[in-house]
Every structure is written in C-alpha cells, then in structure tokens.
Design goal:
- This protein is mostly helical and about 400 residues long.
- The chain has 2 domains: about 250 residues, no CATH class; about 80 residues, no CATH class.
- About 75% of the residues lie in helices and about 0% in strands.
- It contains 12 helices and no strands.
- α2 crosses α5, α5 packs across α8 and α9 packs across α11.
- It is elongated, with a radius of gyration of 24 Å.
- The two termini are about 15 Å apart.
- GO terms for molecular function: metallopeptidase activity.
C-alpha cells in the first residue's frame, strides 16, 4: 500500500508540498509583531518589560480553554498559529498606523482634541481593528474554504486572531499604566483586562467567524453573512470602547452583554458537536461494506469518552504507533461525516467530494491495518462481543477491506 501522509489527508492538502504561502504569512506577521513591540519598547520606558510579561502570561491558559472546545475535529496547528500571529502582527501594526493617522488627520481636525479620543475609540478603532482582524478570516474563506466545516471552526479561528491582537494591545495598556501610576495602576489594569475580561477581542471577532462559517457551509447568504458578522463585531467593539466614558455603570452593562454572548457561543459549540455526532451516526454506516467501520465502531466515535478509551486500548495493544493510528482513524471518520454535511447542503463539488472521500477512506484503511497486521489478543472495549473493524473477521480470511468506492 502506498505511503499515506495522515496530516496532509486530514488537512486536505497535497502531501509533501511545503506551505509557501503559510511560511510567507507567518514571516510577515512576525515582522509586523516585532515592529509593533519595537515601537512600544522605544516609547514605553521601564513599564515595557512588565507589560510584555503580563500580556503573555494568561495566553497559554486562555488558548487551552478555547481549544478544549475543538477536540472532536481539531483544526490544523499551523493554521491556528497563523491566525494568532496575524492578530498579533499584521492586525496590530495596521491598527497602530491607521488609528494614528485617523486621529491626526480626521478626528482631531473635525471634532477637536476633547472629543477626538471618544470618537476614535468608539467608531474609528472598531472599524479599523475588526476589519484588519477579519481579513485573515475572509482570506481563509476565499483560499481555504474547505477548512471551515462549521460555526465551531469560525469561532476557534476568530478567537486565535483575537487573542493575538489582545496580547499585543495589552502590552501597551500595561506599559502605560505602569508608567503613569506605578504598580498600583498596573495591577488594576491587569485585573480588568487580563483576568476579568480576557475574552473581549475574541468575542468581537467571533461574530466575523460565525459569518464566515455560514458562508463556507451554506449556499444562501454567502455574501451577506460575512458582512453582517463584520458589522456585529464593529458594533460590539464600539459599545465596549464607548462604555468606558460612562463609568462603572457603562462597563457593567458591556460586561453583562459580553458574558451572555460568551454563553451563547459555548452553546453553539455544543449544539454543533451534537449535530456532528448525529451525522457520524447517519453517514458512516453506509461504509460498513468496506470493512472499515461497524455499528460498534460508530458508537465508539460518538463521544470523547469513547474515543479516549479507544486510544488507550490502542496504545496498550500496539504502543504509540497504534495510538496515532487510532487518532488518525477517528479524525478521518469525523472529516468524512463533515464532508457529507457539505454535500447535504450543496456546497461540495462532486469531483472534489469523491476525491476527498476516497482519501479519507484510504487513511482509515491504513490506520486499521496497524491493528490487523498483528491482531490484538483481546477485543476492543467498545465491541467485546460485536464485530469491529479493528479485529479480523471471526472466520479468519484476509484483512484487506473491500473498497466499493
């Protein structure tokens, strides 16, 4: 059997081809991030390093919390990294340039020095920043549409962009607080931005993620949904910035609003996860004739607990290689169900559908062979008395699956 690159199959890309566009994008984003940090370092004084440390400190935990919602069909790490670096680099530096130019040549001349900061923060900054953050999501919709399988994907990518942007923006806020008020001011701003409301930018940009996800997975509203998502992000961002002018009461209102939006987004994640499970139950049984999946295997694929138990069993019977094969099998099966979701909604080109389907079934077959070459002594825990694709047939015979596709 020909060698299969599991990551390439799962990501839907050509095996062995270096991701030149991704490398260029990461390089540009990194340069932009360094330039933005350089500006802070030059004008920041002693508070720069304190601000940098505090801005980075909560990021690993926040990202881990968001990625915990994406375990059923996790996104490619390279795309998550690119999204984060876009927010931390291109979006931040672009916002610094355009917001500064807007203040100098638009808001101050038109509204005067006193009102200019309020107008810029409430109307100008949301327009500039959400457009720049959303640009990478629009780019994915144009160039990597098939990578976005639903609302969860849109939320995850948007959150990564938002975290990158918020981290760099917080460096500036912490730095200024330290220089103006010392450690007391720094402590207050850190509690406000780093602990109480660390999800503000991810929440704003998630509106764009929802719009882009709709456009990627539906035929109707493909143009209107991303635009509405961008407008919603701008409105939420503007409300957040404008509320600071109304004291604690204004902040309390936007905190409550953002809390309910966060709860709603989490609900969307769980509702869509259940829908994916239903599609696994509906579509995978049609491939039973291939020998790759049985009713018991479908039950194993239904939930995270069953999948973890299957990976533990695979590691126990075949070591790390078998555990990786089981992971590949589970992810390929999930992608296969999501592929049928696209076909169901009429957004999958028939030729692409067949090619993608065959690649995923091929990966499932390769993963299965890791167990059939040296059959396990004990039946899988999810199929103690039922047939499973990970055990040879009871009557013996060959191990190669039939492939009617």
């Amino acid at each position: 059997m020909a060698r299969v690159d599991p990551k390439a199959v799962l990501e839907g890309r050509v095996p062995g081809r270096p991701p030149i566009a991704l490398i260029i994008g990461l390089s540009v984003s990194s340069v932009c991030a360094l330039l933005a940090l350089g500006v802070d370092a030059v004008y920041g004084g002693a508070g720069f390093w304190a601000g940098l440390v505090l801005a980075i400190l909560p990021i690993p935990l926040l990202i881990a919390l968001v990625l915990a919602l994406d375990r059923l069909e996790p996104e490619p790490p390279r795309m998550l990294l690119f999204s984060f670096m876009w927010g931390a680099g291109v979006a931040v530096l672009g916002a610094l340039v355009f917001n500064t130019l807007g203040m100098l040549y638009v808001t101050v001349p038109v509204f005067g020095e006193d009102k200019a900061h309020f107008v810029s923060a409430t109307f100008g900054a949301p327009l500039v920043e959400e457009t720049l953050k959303g640009a990478v999501l629009f780019g994915m919709l144009w160039f990597r549409r098939n990578e976005i399988d639903g609302f969860v994907d849109g939320i995850i990518y948007a959150a990564m962009v938002g975290f990158g942007f918020a981290m760099m923006e917080n460096v500036t806020y912490y730095m200024r607080a330290f220089d103006e008020s010392g450690t007391d001011g720094l402590q207050a701003i850190f509690i406000l931005r780093g602990i109480i409301a660390p999800f503000s930018h991810p929440l704003f940009t998630s509106m764009i993620g929802l719009g882009v996800a709709w456009a990627a997975t539906h035929r109707r509203g493909r143009f209107a949904a991303p635009v509405l998502g961008l407008l919603a992000a701008m409105v939420l961002h503007g409300l957040w910035n404008g509320a600071t002018s109304f004291g604690l009461g204004g902040l309390a209102v936007v905190y409550v609003l953002d809390f309910f939006i966060l709860v709603a987004l989490i609900a969307v994640v769980f509702v869509e996860r259940r829908a994916t499970v239903r599609r696994i139950e509906s579509y995978l049984p049609m491939y039973a004739a291939t020998g790759l999946v049985t009713p018991a295997d479908v039950q194993m694929l239904r939930g995270m607990h069953g999948r973890r138990a299957a990976r533990r069993w695979a590691r126990r019977v075949g070591g790390p290689g078998a555990a990786r094969a089981m992971t590949d099998y589970q992810l390929a099966a999930t992608e296969l169900a999501l592929l049928h979701k696209r076909a169901e909604r009429g957004v999958a080109d028939p030729r692409w559908f067949e090619t993608r389907r065959d690649a995923l079934l091929g990966l499932m077959s390769v993963a299965r062979q890791a167990f059939l070459r040296t059959p396990p002594q004990n039946a899988p825990p999810w199929a103690p008395r039922q047939p499973s694709g990970f055990m040879p047939p009871a009557g013996g015979g060959g191990t190669a699956p039939r492939a009617p596709w």
